[in-house]
Amino acid sequence: MMHLESIPIQAFLIVSSALFCIGIWGLLNSRNAVRVLMSIELMLNAVNINLMTFSSYIDNNLIQGQVFTIFVITVAAAEAAVGLAILLSLYRNRVTVDMESFNLLKW
Amino acid sequence: MSIAITTQIICFTVLSFIVLIGALGVVLLESIVYSAFLLGGVFMSVAGLYLLLNASFVAAAQVLVYVGAVNVLIIFAIMLVNKKEDLKPINDIKSRRIISTSICLTLLSLLIRVDLTNVWSLSSPQNSIGEESTIRIGEHLFSDYLLPFEVASVLLLMAMIGAIVLARRDVMNEDISTGLPVDQELIEKSSEPLLTNKN
């Protein structure tokens, strides 16, 4: 067995890539609007893992990646609040959360 | 980090397994409530990954903001909109699934190829500052990232007011300042109560 000093950076990057792709799949294939918001949260978390990995492995003196992660978490919280409020008013107008029925902007 | 490398690898394997299986469950499960609780588990495991990367402050922020606020908000939204409805079948669902799955797999293979083939210029002393990172984040936030920090506070205020305005449903009959009747059609049309669970 090979000797390791720490977990290789590729392991973290692969986990984050897989999480991002799962999020994209859910975004494209969900019928429920709440699940679409959850998929967006998954993608944001994948991006955060990426930033934290590079911050820890490459820039571990000035940890700017961690500061960026804090800002991404802030924006994600704001996005979740506004997204769910939009979802509630959509539900109030259409009485459904099916993504296929929101076709007002279809040309 | 003071943890032995074997322990680190075991923790990483377990946490990333939970993250990926949980994310697949969030996307694939039929019941949206199970998805929401699995999403909380995914957020907790991501916080564990941050701890493995020597970032205790960001891990705490992740638990507080994601599990404590975002996940609870999502569960509340599910509670407010949980009407059982029969979804209309889409006729070209199979081709859509095939196209989207192939796009995602292609993107995944591309990203993994980049991850594995690129030569990362790693700095030699791994995790040199450790627990000092919280102090360092504070210094960053109040010196070179001061403007984004202040803009983030404005953003949170805007999101709060926007969410209140969008989600509000009761509208007063008359204007507070003038006493004139308010045009209800313009603001919001009246609708059925939210929890219509008749099926």
TrEMBL record, chain B:
Predominant location of this chain?
membrane
Cell compartment(s), UniProt: Cell membrane
The cross-references to InterPro entries, in alphabetical order and at most eight, read:
NADH_UbQ/plastoQ_OxRdtase_su6, Nuo/plastoQ_OxRdtase_6_NuoJ
According to the UniProt entry, what is the EC number of this protein? 7.1.1.-
Q: Name one GO cellular component term.
A: plasma membrane
Q: List membrane-spanning regions.
A: 6-29, 36-53, 59-81, 102-122, 145-167
Asked whether the UniProt record includes Transport among its keywords, one would answer: no
Q: How does it sit in the membrane?
A: Multi-pass membrane protein
Q: Which UniProt keywords apply?
A: Cell membrane, Membrane, NAD, Oxidoreductase, Quinone, Transmembrane, Transmembrane helix
List the catalytic activities from the record. a plastoquinone + NADH + (n+1) H(+)(in) = a plastoquinol + NAD(+) + n H(+)(out); a plastoquinone + NADPH + (n+1) H(+)(in) = a plastoquinol + NADP(+) + n H(+)(out)
| Keyword rRNA processing on entry | no
- GO molecular function terms listed in the Swiss-Prot or TrEMBL record: NADH dehydrogenase (ubiquinone) activity; oxidoreductase activity; quinone binding
Gene3D superfamilies per UniProt:
NADH-ubiquinone/plastoquinone oxidoreductase chain 6, subunit NuoJ (1.20.120.1200)
Family named by the database record: Belongs to the complex I subunit 6 family.
Q: What does this protein do?
A: NDH-1 shuttles electrons from NADH, via FMN and iron-sulfur (Fe-S) centers, to quinones in the respiratory chain. Couples the redox reaction to proton translocation (for every two electrons transferred, four hydrogen ions are translocated across the cytoplasmic membrane), and thus conserves the redox energy in a proton gradient.
Q: What name is this protein filed under?
A: NADH-quinone oxidoreductase subunit J
What species is given as this protein's source? Prochlorococcus marinus str. MIT 9116
